[in-house]
Batch of 4 targets.
Target 1
Amino acid sequence: MLNIPKANLSTRNSGSSPEPTHLKAEVQQLNFYYSNGFHALKNINLALAEHQATALIGPSGCGKSTFLRCFNRMHDLYPNNRYQGKIIMHPDNTDILGPKVDPIEVRMRISMVFQKPNPFPKSIYENVAYGLRVRGLRRRSMIDDKVEQALRSAALWEEVKNRLNDLAFNLSGGQQQRLCIARALATDPEILLFDEPTSALDPIATASIEELIHELKTKVTILIVTHNMQQAARVSDYTAFMHIGDLVEFGDTDQIFTNPRQKRTEDYITGRYG
Amino acid sequence: MDPMYTHISQQYNAELEDIRSKVLQMGGLVEQQIDQALQALVKGDVALGEAVIMDDTKVNSMEVAIDEECSQIIARRQPAASDLRLVMAVIKTITDLERIGDEAEKIARMAVRLAGEERPKNNYAEIHALGMHVRTMVHNALDAFARVDIEAAFNVAREDRKVDEQYEAVIRQLITVMMEDPRTISRVLNVIWAARALERIGDHASNLCEYIVYLVKGKDVRHTSLEQVEKEILGRPSGS
Amino acid sequence: MDDTKVSEIRQMIIRHKRWDRLFALLGLCAMILGVLTLTVLFADLLIDGAHRIGVDFFTSFPSRKPESAGILSAFVGTCLVMLVTVVTAVPLGVAAAVYLEEYAPRNWMTDLIEINVSNLAGVPSIIYGLLALGLFVYALDFGQSILSAGLTLALLILPMVIVATRESIRAVPGSIREAAYAVGATKWQTVSSHVLPYSTGGILTGVIIGLARAIGETAPIITIGALTFIAFLPPAPIMAEAPFISFEWLFAPFTVMPIQMFNWLSRPEEAFQSNAAAAGVILIAMTLAMNALAIWLRYRYRKRIKW
């Protein structure tokens, strides 16, 4: 099985010796076929380290978004997609791709933030509270607390605390994306999936989201798909490079960006691809 | 390294190629400086010596120009992996080359001073030998950079040990001369400075080789012993 | 760019703009023709019948004397029939559309159903009348009543409601659905909390437009036998004694405005023509009011939602 390299980033910041890295999820021999038969993911083996950010990079069509969406079973929403292989969640060792596992249960443990900010056309409060309501939470005070907590974690509370009943659409793009992050955080997920979260945002909003991801790492495990390599280099501890459905290389972000082992990785990173 | 030329951006290709060729140009100029400084010393040619001293400004301005280009590449292109290592290696290489240029200028100064003095019987043969040795080192190092050849780089680094030994021998000889005849002390001191400069050049040349290893393997081998390098980088037990 | 090129371009633009102006003129004429025709017709009706419109016109039953004839029974009949239509068509139509859009599997059978729903909107209304006669009036024995009329018209506008609902549901972006699912919602939670609320504007618009059409449908109502001379109102739904709510009015005989107009038009007296014209004016006013309501609702809902 995969040997997880030590996370240099966290030790550099804290100055302490590295603790043994725990795994949050293990991907085993994952294959994925779209409804038209297209073999989108080929034998992927990967491990997600807990409380670390893992980035997925690769050219268009390499399968990184497909791979991301396997984690929260989004492919189940469209008919005739087929999974093969396992994704084991720790510590309970559940295979979230198992046919007996309800996708809704998976989505309650793993949240997602999408590429284009997609808040509901409701108030800011209702957006964040929706996940809680879906889980049957009814006590107003509890919902209030969790909404505030989520908005604080998303670094949005100060900006919206006086207008929680305002329509979410009145926020700027960067704020809307942070609202979506708050919505995803409100339910205390174990893994947070980001699908190119800043590709629709301007550089300042992008920088604030990246900063946020850095802070969120202490609470959740993060898997982020990005086509911006510098973002992957800045934000993640581990990076996986994918190419036409294959996992070409997986390792420490620092190592991948200064001295990758595979030529294909090197070619992509330095812009020689194509 | 062929892949150098296949970036999607032709501009980027051209920029990287440009700094490489400029480094080699600078190296060529520096080699020439060493050559001419040695000649000036051995032949007592004052004009040549002064030419070398003046040309040092050219070396300095090349360092500044290449540094500027590297900064721009970093700002514009955010180089990664091997491109990043190339730019870093170039920045370090030109620093060492500029120092080599300074040492060559020192030798030229000594040459000018010694030109008016009494010439020894062997015509500075030992300095000449040391100088040739060192110049070959620099030449081979630049060659290894051009061909990105870590075997060649390693061999040059190994030469530095021999250069050090040779230098020690020259110093012992010169000390003997000074002890035999105290009137020669002020003259011989200049020769010693020249020898020292040559030994320094050898050290800088060996630094160049460390950067070549970094460029190719991504491993920083400054302050690593030769035996370690041989074992880890070249993948063979030391001494072979 | 040198002078000759610039002048060439200018001349070309002048030529092309001539076609521009020509078409704008043609469009304007066509529009004026249409609007003018409608205005003339409406003005004609108004001139004919305006003097008859008043409180007693609304509160009198039809009578043999044109001056004392009114539309009370017809107006009440129209309103009650519309009520039954709405209560039947909206839940059925919305539920069917939700099922077709969200739950039905994508196979040939679903496709077949979808095609046929759209086709149904084009079926001549008299066919619905025949269906209603056989099914509601005789087979189910509802008789020639408000219930039959309401159900018939509901069937008539059902395809419109289904199509309007489906269009509104489709207009909800997939990204919102994915966001809801990603947060852990079930299909029904997604539909009820998000898809339906955001489609309400479109659904209402579709319903109101359907009603505006149904209000003027005469053929099916005649077929199932709405009476043309009713001088009484259906029994009131609220009674003085238990059980306080009566459904007898559903089974009562009735008439509607178009039928009343038709009846008056076929009388020889000049005065009845004015009555018909007045009733026509009121009918048009009701239709216009409903359309205006539809537009306003659409505007209101669109303000809240920006995709």
Note: The mean pLDDT of chain B is 90.
Target 2
Amino acid sequence: MPTFRMRNGRRGFSLVELMFAMGILGLVLSLTLAEFITAFGHFSFAQTHMDAEMAGRVAMAKVNDVLQLASSDHNPADVPVACATHCMVVANKADPNWPGPISDVAIVATTTDPADNSGQLAPGMQTIAQVPEPDYQVVELKFDNVLQEIVETRTSYKQWFLGGAATSTSVIARNVQQFQVTALNWDAGKGFCSGFQVNIQSVGPAQGGRQATVANTSNTVYFTTYAGFQ
Amino acid sequence: MNKLIELSRNKRGVALITVILMVVVMLILAGALLDSTISEAQGIGANGVSNQALNAAYAGLDDMVLKLEENTSGTNVGVPNPFTTTMNGDGVYASQYSVSVTKQWSPSANFQYFLIESKGTAGLPLGGALEPVRTVDALVRTQPFSSYEMYSISEVNNFGGTVYYTNAQHYDGAVYSGGPMNVMYKTGDAAIFGAGVDTAVAPNYVDPSFKGGQPADCSSIDGTQACSQMNIGGSPKALPTFLDNLLVASEAYYGDATHNTQNPPSPGVNGLYVNQAIPNGTNGGPLTTGLYIQGDVTIYAQGVNAATNKQFYIFQVGGSTYDVAIDFNANGGIGSTTVISPGNKTTIYSGVASGQPSGGTGGNGSIFVNGNVTIAGGTDATGLIGKTTIGATVHGSYTIGVPDYITNHADSITLNKSITDLDSSASSNDVLALWANDIKLNNNGDPSVDVDALILTGYYGECTIAQCNDGTLYNKSCTAASCGGGAGRTLNILGSLVENIRGKLGTAVVGQSSCATGFCRQMTYDQRLGSRPPPFSPTTNKYQIIALQYK
């Protein structure tokens, strides 16, 4: 009989008590859920925005790395196919009178073609009349608005003007919605400027129920070489 | 059965389970966020350290360029030894660069090239080697004066007047001024300076009503909002030295660069000297020097087209005339220089009196005159008759100089007519330098005069106050009040101008773009002068990075 007494001492809730308790619990849970949904929404937005900003920063860093190497071609062997003078920026072939901003920019830089040993910046580089003359290439950054990518192509200086094939092509940034470059102090006749204003709008893609977001990154690139004075 | 009922009653309610579930869900979310954050932080950190290493490598490059400049004296450059510098930064992160000159090229006495390799590392200063290693390779070169379109030490003109940079002018090349520059801008007009300005002291900005102060928008000055292309400060720059000027004399008379510490030769007989002698009809042979002229000379110059590929000069020295024909196609491309001296004596030299030869030997384009020079015009088709009615042209690469240093700068160059390159396209090597303490414009007839050259005036240490009155390009017909030659005339300088003080060329009315008297100066920079300057033209003690790569 002691067992029976225990049962009586721990009797269950009445139906009303249980419903009341569940009602309170439901209310608390629904409030908590609402908070969770709000928090998750903020988290998702922050995550996609961070993705967008990260994509923008990475894209900008890579674009900067390319554009700051702009140089003028000093190799006299290249001159007959060059633009009006020793251009350091050859803009885009479709629009040589670059008003900017544009999404297709091409600069002149020393070659990175591994097959061109004598043209590399190295102690054994080729010379003309005892003057060191590295080889040059045209590095073109072009925005693909279908795939939302910035594509880099590298073409030998002469081949670029002759419409020859690129020696290398690579995607340097993805999830880019807009890529605009404006030349600073652009001289169309000579193909010279002192630097670029670069704007990149990158996207944090929609995934897992998240909404896509965009981030804008801007930067001004001044050339390391003495390009403006060549 | 009783036991089962008891157990279920012992674990009644769902609150604990709910709480546990919630905690688990939150832990999962927090864990995912933490993992993502850690991964991105590591990525950013690695990228940051790599960038820090690259910046260190760039800093090493700048440091080596600075050391090259410090080690430069005249045309002599002491190549610095390799060195390593560590920067402790904030005490937590450090970076380091090791930099060395890996190769030097010296195509001529005053033009040097250096290949610099700079390796940068970064990371925590304690606990081992810094990493990663980023490398910057750069090709640097001595900077010629002609890398500037306009280079002036003083902003006072040769009558002591104030000179203004206005929107009626446009500089499409770089400008240097010892300052203070006087910039009269007109809001809404095109920028005066298109390729930046280096100046030692802050400019005086005024609008057309002479209201002072830097404007809120500098678009009409340098094309930027905040005058960011006006680079103010740094050490004042200097003019070429007597060593630079005498290098041209040494190359013209001796054919080498070793006689530039003594006065130029002064042979007893006036005339044209080639290979250190007046051509006499028999003393030809390989050309080993430039052209050296003793006495005042009048020069006519005419280049002829690429098919004929010749340059004619007529040098009138007193009553003697020397006809010089430089044939670039002769001798299977080696070329020839033919001189017809008084008495119709023809002397033929192999090699051309043009350009700056590699290694510093052989014929070259230095033309040094120990006297006054007058550029009088072109020639007829034979190259034997001077034509004062047409402008002079040059085909080839030449520097025409007279003494310009503290103890000897009385001789001058006078321009009676235009002088231009036969071919000024990008692929052409037709470039000219004119070098005298004073270069005078003597033309009141032509509506416009073109000077397609690097114009060098003034020497290092020359005083910069108005009373000096020299070291300048000026209009000979100008007085303090006005200039001769009527209104609306133009002097087109298609190259580069280096002056001690600013020479007066014309007068203008404030707010008007055409000149009231004399010449309005229009400048167009010839980019070739920056990378392929005329032979033996001077270089600064600065170095410019002309090619760059990083790894």
Note: The radius of gyration of chain B is 32 Å.
Target 3
Amino acid sequence: MTAADQLPQGAKFLAAGDTALVVEFGNRVEERLSASVLALARRVEAAAIAGVVETVPTFRSLMVHYDPLTISNAQLKGRLQPLLSGLAGSVSAGRHWRLPACYDRTLGLDLAEVAERTGLSEAEVVAQHSAAPFRVYMVGFLPGFAYLGGLPAALALPRRENPRLKVEAGSIAIAMSMSVIYSIESPGGWNILARTPVALWDLRREPSALVSAGDRVNFAPISRAEYDELAGKARAGELRMTPQSQGA
Amino acid sequence: MSAALACLAPGLLTTLQDLGRVGYQHLGIPVSGALDPISLTAANLLVGNPAATAALEIAYQGPYLVVEADSVRIAGAGAAAPIELIAAAEGGRPRRLQIGESARLARGDRIRVGAVAGVLYLAAEGGFDVPAVLGSRSTLVRAGIGGFHGRPLQVGDRLPLCRARASEAEEVRLTGLDLTPPASFRIILGPQDDYFTPAALSLLTQASFTVTPASDRMGMRLAGPRLEHSKGYNIVSDGIAPGTVQVPGNGLPIVLLADRQTTGGYPKIATVISADLPALGRLTPGATVRFRRVSIEEAEAARRQQAALIAELARRLVPAPRAARIDEAQLQDANLVSGMIDALAGDPA
């Protein structure tokens, strides 16, 4: 190992070619790791290192995309290393979104199956999911697609055996130990519990993605009639969401 | 009517691409952009555009277009493909436009691009007048954004041009741009090479792989020996770099290209170096791919060398041979002396 590879908090640099560098904090989905990743992302942004093009926070690592004609891999490691000290405990509050969610079976297509597989009643599944304080660990896979940590352990489930060719935008699902929100229509294999009328991704909006990594999210159950009304407003671009609180 | 190239036949996958949508990967938005940015740069250079101007990226089979502008200057660069220019005037006898050469066309002239051995870029002087989405005109079909209405070209489309007519510039030809694929593509191991058996790691650089028809702008799917995982094939998703070689459960590598997803949960055995990605992006199904390990320092040196080559391209422009010049006065001359009417395309509509 070179000196630059001996990093605080068990972090390590992993090569990802000559235009990206991974700073990895661990290999699990854990709030502690996510917090370090997000704190580092903010520090890298604030440091405005010449040659750094953009960063992508994930559950357990930060990918730093850079221009090798401006900064070398070795130079970049040298610039990042001092930013790694004292990351733990610097969790930002993030914004807090309270998203309406309709758990009606006509939209929460797998609610009955989830209840059966977890041994809970449908009402208990809804109660536990809508009471959970989630945190956005990562936005990725599709534009605006959100991965939320904080799913009650009793609700954790693997993929469905038969993935769907089409999952509607706004679908809220269980993905292993997390909850996810499908931002745009796509194929998908996760267990769909509910749907939100709020657009997670809307090009008419700036920024287009509603939530960012580090934000907190919880779901407020609504009826099917309320869903239809809000969905109509959302289509017309008249459903404006504001966070409950603005984080640091 | 506003200036445009109208589409009589779209080809198989014709999209507008520039150098990509940078800065939004943290929101899940792929970078996209040209599979072969060197050829895009060359095509733009030939028509006097900045390198990052959006041009048509043409794969497999090219489009058939008609000029609906007073005049337009175009050029093609990239993989080999027949480009026919059919003059509206004089009975429409076609002539061939060489790859790496500019030409000026008049209203009603048509452009027919045949089968493309890889990807080809067709640039228009001044560029195409489509809105930038999140800072880029690149088409991302999967999300329906960018380019022309977020999708590949279709019959009946009118691709708006920024210029109503071509400038009076001389036609040019680009010399000395070698687009021959390298004997092997250079890789840097990681970030998850520790998820593979020693046998898989040696196969990666000793075996040869074949580009399969299931490849697309997102990823190049390779056939060949299976690369065995040593500790499963599910990892907690992390970031994806350009040129990432990910290996899903079936052991067959996928090299992630321009439309790659921003994050992914399969182990990534290696990454193709940035200097070799344009050549990789130019490959076509059936092509053979071999990999060779290099150090990060070698990758950086290769990239600097390539950047120097690109910077030098402008000095490699020479006047195009006479047949390609469509300067009106010269055309008249040529017409009188040689009767090369098919080359003239000089309908002053």
Note: The longest strand of chain B covers residues 115-124.
Target 4
Amino acid sequence: MAFVLLRRLGQALLILLGVAAITFVLLYALPADPARMIAGRSATAQTVASIRHELGLDQPLIIQFWTYLSGLLYGDLGRSYAQKTEVWTLIVARLPATLILMAAGITVEVVLGVTFGTVAAVKRGGTVDRLVMMASFVGVSAPQFVVALLLLYVFAVTLGWFPMSGYGSFAHVVLPATTLGVLGAGWYARMVRSAMIDVLNQDYVRTARAKGLSSRRIIFRHALPNAILPIVAMIGIDIGQFMGGVVVVEAVYGWPGIGQLAWQAIQQVDIPIIMGVTLTSALAIVTGNLLADLIAPFIDPRIRTS
Amino acid sequence: MGILRSLSRQPAALFGLVIVVAVVVLALAAPLIAPFSPDDQMFDGLTLEGAPMPPGGQFLLGTDTLGRDLFSRMLFGARTSLIIGIVANGIAVSIGLFVGIVAGYLRGLPSSILMRFTDLMMAFPALLLAIVLAALLKPSLWIVAMVIALVNWVQVARIVYTETRGLVERDFIMAERSLGAGHGRILLLHILPHLVPTAIVWGTLGIATTVLLEATLSFLGIGVQPPQPSWGNIIFESQSYFQAAPWLVFFPGMVILLTALAFNLVGDALRDILDPTQRGRG
């Protein structure tokens, strides 16, 4: 177990290193010039050159990358070009908002997905099943920003139940979390349904039925715990994918999280922040997958023995 | 033709198919159907206060903030979405097929290098990567297509890899090899045909993903650039006005949803028809 864990950790580190390398090369190979961006349109070539020198951008790419990597070892993500602050401080300041949004969104997803997926599997082939499957298709096909604007229009502008944008209270979380959760719930519902159908066809479920157990007991006590494993794996993957989705949702709702930080940085070609956010997201993806793998043996003893 | 008949037997798939055909026809015939030019900022396209005209009357779906006919813009926007959908997804599926087949057929170091690279791409936050690339490159229709292709090939590669791995172990490939067939012959004549269903399914499902991604990038203002209409940038342009003129957001939004839904429904039905082992699963 310890060996497996070490190997997985090693792989995760290699993946992060790869992500850092690719992002670095992509960002510096792109035509956007951060020095010109900072200096402004009217700056002389000399000013631009001195800024470039100051930021170390005049050095060969490989040396810049090496400097960046050795900084990473000490947890140093560099300094923002525009805000002159440590990238690490900026990210840490924004992280709680995004984590709250993510936790709320995933809760909505899992609750909706597991409920409707289970109902659909139990009533397989019926009208309810068809409706749930259709709704899940609509969910996975709906553009996030349109749903965000729709919810904003109905519940904030027209009905006035929730604030338009901002951060700070429970009411602020509802709309962005619903946007993220309702759409993702489609994937969960489909997966739970498919896993539940597999489980409900197993012999031990038939035995339980033959013993005369109530269907509620069969579903909650015997079937659902065995269908929960793919959900855990899915949450692991989801944590990573959320980081992209929050850029859009945070932009619409003015949510002061990492997504907004990234979006501002992208517009200002603030490369250290973009690097930092990409690495944070990759770290989230890798950690999410790793956690899902680590939790799996505790949920399913069959994995523990093999 | 057998596939078409099976498709039309499922109500959901038939619904999807009808919408897909409708969108394609409307996009192709846009210049014939559109009542106005999509770029024409009409003098009578705005109210006296300078606000967009609501739906109904002379302008079927109303006008946008610059007094252009929304219906005409959406018709031409369909072209943009479909071109990007087909080009970006075509490239993504081609890259995915190539990487997947090569990595699945070769063994040893080249195979593991390719697959580790795919793993690496899986750890990239796809949407974030697309946003960064699209924003820092000079946005245009083709750049957007390239960016989308670049983040979307990974999933196809993984699936094709697994399938190729399975195929290579099968007896008929071994038989072919013992008859003296070269790698090229085995790959092109015996492995590739087995992957056609996968390519068709992902070619269809992927268009839904691509349409959504293009709309998202354009909505953020880093996708297709106005005045060239795209469903996403119509929403981007009217976003600040949307409390007063919500139809400017919701008509294009509905069309994006319906198009993505249609391609998803058809793709899902195709998967059921072409791969019987997956039938009835989520």
Note: The two ends of chain A are 11 Å apart (CA to CA).
